[in-house]
Amino acid sequence: MILTLGEYSMLDISEIRRLQFDVLVIGAGGAGLSAAIAASQEKNIKVGLICKSLLGKAHTVMAEGGMAAALGNVDNRDDWKIHFRDTMRGGKMLNNWKMAQIHAKNAPERVRELEHWGAVFDRTKDGLINQRNFGGHRYPRLAHVGDRTGLEMIRALQDHGIHQGIDIQMECTALDILKDKSGKISGVVCMYRETGEFIVFETKSLIFATGGAGKAWEVTSNSWEYTGDGYGMAYEAGAELIDMEFNQFHPTGMVWPPSVKGILVTEGVRGEGGILKNSEGKRFMFDYIPEKFANETADTEEEAARWLKGDKSARRPPELLTRDVVARAINNEVKAGRGSVHGGAYLDIATQRSAEDIKRKLPSMYHQFKILAELDITKEPMEVGPTCHYFMGGIKVDAKTSMTNVDGLFACGEAAGGMHGANRLGGNSLSDLLVFGNLSGIEASKYSRKIKSMPKSSDEDIKRIIKNATSILNKEKGNNPYLIHEDLQKNMQYNVGIIRTKNEIKDGISEIDNLKSQFKDVKAAGSSQFNPGWHEALALRNLLISAEAVAKSAFMREESRGAHTREDFPSEMKEWLEYNIINKKGKDGNMETIKVKRSEPEAELKRIANSSIEELEKEVKLDHNK
Amino acid sequence: MKERDFKIYRGDDERGELVSYKCNVSEGMVVLDVIHRIQADQANDLACRWNCKAGKCGSCSVEINGKPRLACMTRMNELDEDKTVVITPLKSFPVIKDIVTDVSWNYEQNMKIKPFSPSEKDKEKDFVMMQKDVDRVQHFRKCIECYLCQNMCHVVRDNEGKDKFAGPRYMTRLASLEMHPMDRADRIEDIKDVHGSGMCNITRCCTEVCPEEIQITDDAIIPLKERVVDRFYDPIMMLFRKLFGKKKKETTN
After folding, report:
1. Would the CB atoms of B28 and A117 count as touching at under 8 Å?
2. Of the residues B62, B80, B101, which one is the last residue of a structural domain?
3. Which of A2, A386, A418, A526 has a CA positioned 20 to 30 A from the CA of residue B5?
């Protein structure tokens, strides 16, 4: 039914349409589609998939560089153990050990599966899936399609997924989770964006593949969808959020013109040999090589050039250090007055590769700069700077099942936290989507099979959720949701940005409190039919919860690790390696932020992650010869 | 920063009008930025679709001064400074609200296409495909499903045509499957009867509007038409098939 203004008070719950599922997936990017496909392969499991946009438009489509998997097609020394070690080192050892292992072990199989479903990757000379170099990966590891890997992935999943009997609901926004009396998942209340109609999906299990909350920052590579819906809903339902202080600022976003500030420039540019220079023409990354990575990084331009030519004895250029390191370096150069004309760094591929190579390997970058910045990247350097890109943190899940602490609620992809620790390696996201999408789909099916009858939701909960949504439209007057959002973005950008200090974060938290109270009086004009102002207002609650969790965790973690940089605590602290920070809704309704001791990893995993690269390469060689 | 004039369609499929707005335009702005600014300051409920803002998702397709374009890739400085910019919804699909149209018909066409079908035996080991053999397939797979070609196709634009022709987008998809080295399905009969390849009379309007510069007509539609002709209208091949049975799979390009 479609509610007109003022009708919610007379809401007759029996008139609201209901649909039943065994497994319901929210979010139809790479993770959500993978989860739905995996669940749909189980016998007698009815699967639903909800997307906020049209199918095939989710943010995965923006991913450019590739998906990391130790296929060993380009360098046969590669192995899951080395991928695992790279991932742990990139995450500054704060990763969930088990998740990182599951990811590295399963990624190759999932990539092959995607090829069987119709993805057409770039090929090696021998006709296998080609792999490219990327930051923090020891070998060429990223299966890719030029610089449009995300599009290939989502299209392959979409075109395979639509034939698996999944009920797909497009342009449908999830508002809040429903639970039965015992506290387990019983459904979710949603709204069709097109009509404003509310609908209740009753389900035995729910998988959140809802992505991150990058829209809380001003300079971001994320689209409007990235409003932390999963974080907000899960939090309200009692789930825990973990590692929320770790927000990845991708080192290379566009900086000019202003209207495209933040749009992603793929790490593939550096993977293909692109170099970073400051206004003095200096290739500055050589000055920012962390001690831990010094052994594995080239220290002269000559060595870096040999590496680019394929010399296996040469070490990797410093431009391919992990994203946290490169983002901070650019930030530092700009602060020191050596920035580019519009306050970034110069990213130069023109002098490193032929125009033909650039157009073939990086066609969408060529196109993007040509049209949006009127710049030819085969002739001139790009101007780039850090842009908010990815949430390492997210909903806390069990590594082996992807289930949260709420019975029947699962999370995967960017919505879930833990796998990437303090910093994610490029290319590990797309593979994460496939691996944990698949895993959560299977596990949620198993869980649902054990639940004999559909859990019952309370009518009062449904009414309350709908009333919360419609009251935004029904107020006489109130605050403009767009302006609250803009204020939040400014606040996060300046107070909880790439470099953080105690006082600024404190200011950030009090501004979030202020915005929370403004949000109470938020008003959207117009009707419930395809009304972006209303949708914006509905997303604000989730954005504010996400931002608060980020700020409070960032305040608590008094060290600098990976993507979380505290100017007042500039180095990694050994004692902090033992803790994760968790946010959850307290009994009084306020957010609780607590330090939780990490559990001890399996000895074998610890050994692999801490091995020297030489030792591990020897071991892998023996493994491969067996 | 300069104030510019805009007219945007407001309304639904039955009723609507062009509403005038003024908006300050600064360097580098694209049409989608203008729509967002108007939405934030003057018309909170102005409906529009968008996602990536970088020409990669194909959500923000509209008509700008009568031409089908991606709003995120149309820079304000390429439009005449003294003229009002008119933004209207895609003409081939029913308007939901303002500049948002109902594109569900496209999803229905995709459902009718036999999906990628490799053999079980091929799936047992890594696919071996040479780059030169997948170049053309990859060219088709650049499609971002913005439906500008569908909007521009005069067969699709005619409502009755929608029952007979899947449109250029899905001809491209069919071509990508037919030319995939590992695909084993036979779609030639479907291409003729279900997807209506014969309806296209090669006016190339689709190719002209494709933001990904896919050679839809020359590389996808014409080769598919040829395959249909080979199968159904070539007397020698018909005799050959009568004698030796149906060919399982067209050879790849």
Report:
1. no
2. B101
3. A526
Angle in degrees, CA A591, A464, A452, rounded to 5:
90
Q: Using CB atoms and an 8 Å cut-off, which of residues 104-123 of chain A contact chain B?
A: 112, 115-118, 120, 122-123
Sequence-distant (≥ 6) Cβ neighbours of residue A140 within 8 angstroms: A74, A75, A131, A132, A133
Nearest CA in chain A to B127: A128
Total CB pairs under 8 A between chain A and B: 168
Provide the mean pLDDT of chain B.
Answer: 93
Nearest to A524 among B44, B110, B127 (CB): B44
Q: What total of structural domains would you count in chain B?
A: 2
B120 and B169 both lie in a single domain: yes
| Active-site residue identified among A137, A138, A141, A270 | A270
Sign of CA dihedral A408, A412, A414, A418: positive
Q: Please tell us whether the domain made up of A470-576 is placed in CATH 3.40.50.300.
A: no
ipTM: 0.93
Distance from CA of B110 to the nearest CA of A (A): 8
Where is the domain boundary, B67, B101, B135?
Answer: B101
As a whole number of angstroms, the distance between CA A594 and CA A586 comes to: 11
SS3 A301: helix
If one counts every other C-beta atom within 10 angstroms of the C-beta of residue B161, the result is 16
**B176 and B90 in a common domain:** no
Q: Per-residue pLDDT tens for A427-481?
A: 999 999 999 999 999 999 999 999 999 999 999 999 999 999 999 999 999 999 9
**Rounded-to-integer distance, Cα B18 and Cα A212, Å:** 37
